[in-house]
Amino acid sequence: MKFSAISDIHVKNSGDQAEKLLLQFLQNPDVRTSDIIFLLGDIFDLMIGPHTQYFTRFQNYFEELKVLNQAGVKICYTEGNHDFHVRNLYKKFFSINKNLNSSLFLMSSHFEYSDAGKNMYFCHGDDIELNNPGYKIYKSIVTSPPLRYYANNLMPHFLIQRIGEYSAEKSRLRNNLRYSLETDLLPVRDNFRESAESFNRKNQKQIIVCGHSHVKDHYISKNGFEYANNGFAQYTKTYISILNGDISFKPVFI
Ligand SMILES: [Mn+2]
After folding, report:
1. From the CA of 171, how far away is ligand 1's center (Å)?
2. Nearest of 137, 171, 173 to residue 46 by alpha carbon
3. Residues 142, 84 contacting (CB under 8 angstroms)
4. How much is the pTM?
5. Number of separate domains in the chain
6. How far is the CA of 98 from the centre of ligand 1 (A)?
7. What distance in angstroms lies between residue 114's CA and the mean position of ligand 1's atoms?
8. Ligand 1 centroid from CA 138, angstroms
9. CA distance 248 to 245
10. How far is CA 211 from CA 29, 103, 144, in A?
11. Contact by Cβ (8 Å): 215, 229
12. What are phi and psi of 74, to 5 degrees?
């Protein structure tokens, strides 16, 4: 089987470089012929709640979803910390486009698949990350049932902006890392390796794929599993390909 995964594209506006990257990814012939495409969170820099304005703001993206759906490609979507409470947005998308097959579009906090004798786990990455208590508190508040209800029914645009500003500040800190010395990235990379090790002690996978750290990595553990992270996609311009259980990074632009 062939799986293609990407995360952390952080599309801000239609027409920006990040959107070009997202569209190129979805149009890439290798990606289009995947058994499953994984969109592992933070695809958009700010997408919260079921606002139908997103359909027009990111029309190109939703058009590509239609094309892929009609071609029978399965898409697995995990929410990130920049794009969440969007389950009802996609429900609306499929209720508007009744000719599409909604069973080909799955949303979950994580996905598990087995192929070529390997058990694989796909997630955004923040749920397995160790040592980030401030973030965990923030995440538990914004994803709590009252706020989910609020986001889905009442949340005014200004609050979405505020959350966006907070998240943007956090990711600026992370993005700034890519301009710094390679050695400055090592603590983040190593924390995610350790997070994957910790997760794997309890869950026993052969492949763990996640994003969120913005640090690209392919770590082969002596404990019998591999951890892959595509990093900040605007910078790496790659995606993760898993062909018959073998992981590689491939260029989005061909
Ligand atoms: Mn993230």
Report:
1. 8
2. 171
3. yes
4. 0.91
5. 1
6. 31
7. 25
8. 13
9. 10
10. 23, 25, 22
11. yes
12. -85, 135
Q: Rounded to the nearest whole angstrom, what is the distance from the C-alpha of residue 99 to the centroid of ligand 1?
A: 32
User: Rg (Cα) of the chain, in Å, rounded?
Assistant: 17
CA of 68 to the centre of ligand 1 (A): 25
CATH of the domain at 72: 3.60.21.10
Compute the distance from residue 103 Cα to the ligand 1 centre, in Å: 26
Q: How close is the Cα of 9 to the center of ligand 1, in Å?
A: 10
Per residue of the chain (254 residues), give pLDDT as tens: 999 999 999 999 999 999 999 999 999 999 999 999 999 999 999 898 888 889 999 999 999 999 999 999 999 999 999 998 999 999 999 999 999 999 999 999 999 999 999 999 999 999 899 988 888 888 888 888 888 887 777 766 667 767 777 776 776 666 665 555 667 789 999 999 999 999 999 999 999 999 999 999 999 999 999 999 999 999 999 999 999 999 999 999 98
Domain that holds residue 215: 2-251
